[in-house]
Amino acid sequence: MKNPRDVIKRPVITERTSEFIDQLKYVFEVDIKANKTEIKQAVEQIFKVKVASVNTLRMPAKPKRYGRHSGYTSEWKKAIVQLAEGSKPLEFFEASV
Q: Are 32 and 75 a contacting pair, CB within 8 Å?
């Protein structure tokens, strides 16, 4: 089995993903070769929560220009993780006052 920290790269925090927190949904950038089972096991091991479902999608490469140089951004994979009812919210999404 892969190391859970190699499967989950980073959380994706945007306005849209912060609206999902009320529904116990969290968005992560994951390894492009990871499947839903590996993502579920990695989130459960790292954050000690119960995962109800995982949805994944591949974000395509986009053309970018910088002056006269052009190229593409990297293709990456995004996972939307739904926590089970009664699970605690993830800590790094909490705002400290």
A: yes
Give the alpha-carbon dihedral of 88, 29, 77, 19, to 10 degrees. 60
- The yes-or-no verdict on residue 26 having pLDDT over 60 is yes
SS3 of residue 28 by DSSP: strand
Whether residue 1 is predicted with pLDDT greater than 70 in this model: the reply is no
Tokens at residue 58, please?
Answer: 């591949």
CA angle 90, 54, 23 (to 5 degrees): 50
pLDDT score at 7:
97
Q: Which residues are paired to 82 by β-bridges? A: 25, 53
